[in-house]
Predict the structure.
Amino acid sequence: MIPPAFEYSRPKTIPEAIALLLQHGDDAKILSGGQSLIPMMKFRLARPSHLIDINRISGLAYIREEGGFLKIGGLTREADLEISPLIVAKYPLIVDTAHVIADPQVRNLATVGGNLAHGDPANDHPATMLALGAQIVATGQKGDRVIPIEDFFVSLFTTALEHGEILTEIRIPIPPPKSGGAYFKQERKVGDFATAAVAAQLTLDTGGTCQKAGIGLTNVGATPLKARKAEDFLRGKKLDEATIAKAAQLAADDAQPSSDLRGPAEYKRGLIKELTKRALIRAAERAK
Amino acid sequence: MAKKQLVQVKINGREREAAVEPRLLLVHFIRDVLQLTGTHVGCDTSNCGACTVMVNGKTIKSCTMFAVQADGAEILTVEGINKNGQLHPLQEGFKEEHGLQCGFCTPGMLLSSLALLEKNPQPSEQEIRWGISGNLCRCTGYQNIVKAVQHASRKMAESKTAQGGAK
């Protein structure tokens, strides 16, 4: 399948890329890993007349802790996230997530920034970033703007990024001690998009009572979803079979799945309930 | 039609270049422009991995990259895996262990296996299956592909030891 003809630029700096975006208007699109965008262009579902390839811009791929935040550069490849010693040691939820994105070849090119900026509820990082309470750094002509993740996903394939803005960094508040997270994804086969998936991040106190809970849902709505009712319910409660079951039910209630090739809506809702339970149990284990 | 852009690559050790439209997929650049048809178009939807090549040392699906993105890159295709006309241990493994039937997925399997063994010379069966999880095969059921990779892993370890012993 062949996309319609387009012009291609490869700027060397972010300001150059932003200028190109503004110059060409709504017909221009940023090309990051391309693992979501290029397939859409081949189907002609996306038809940018100008592609701005940011892959050669240096200084956009990094993973570091600074100022109380885990900071991940937008151009960081999923493969690098998977094996980063820092992420493996301290952020198992992110390892879980990167690990189930597509396959090894796709992960060599796919970027965390692209996975979020594409605005696809079927991508995996959105739910995880919702669970972690992340912030998105959008760089535009006037500089950086910080967008809380819960405001970032607006509608199908639409994020809060304005035209002329590029997602350059993801910031995750470093979780306090006794925190843990997990991502559980149900898929038809390895490499598929989620039939449904759940990200959970918990902070417990020494008595095992939940101080903080973040729960994100993948591919059960027009946007990635934050399971707020479940989160609110868990806060201040001791995590046991009953509270986990109740939270799982609340998360399932919040899901807005559609029936499609991957399954009926009610099946997906049932999956959310079960996956939330498993994610909470694993997150609690890791929080000890 | 968009203006053509020059793409210069070093492919299997040879410098090649051509002026192409930005929308030309890397797999079509490799097959149609450079006439290296070992790399295959399978699904064209980024699933099957028959189009897998190495760009700057990393395996990627060449149906999901534009040729213009690879300007200045080093590319390895299945045609470049042999060592001076000798079969690479992986190629030998696929031959010895019957790791192919129709052969359509094989170039992609070879590149993915090569990438795996470069990172992890002694993979477990689980790790092999994970390493080729971006490559689909409709013929073999994967069993003999796994054996082929294990064969190569053994052979490569043996030749390393042999080299060490020869000092």
Summary: The mean pLDDT of chain A is 97. Chain A touches chain B at residues 1-8, 10, 31, 34-35, 38-39, 42, 51, 53, 55, 79, 102-106, 108-109, 190-191 (CB under 8 Å). Residues 63-173 of chain A form a domain with the Uridine Diphospho-n-acetylenolpyruvylglucosamine Reductase; domain 3 fold (CATH 3.30.465.10). Residues 20 and 37 of chain A are 18 Å apart (CA to CA).
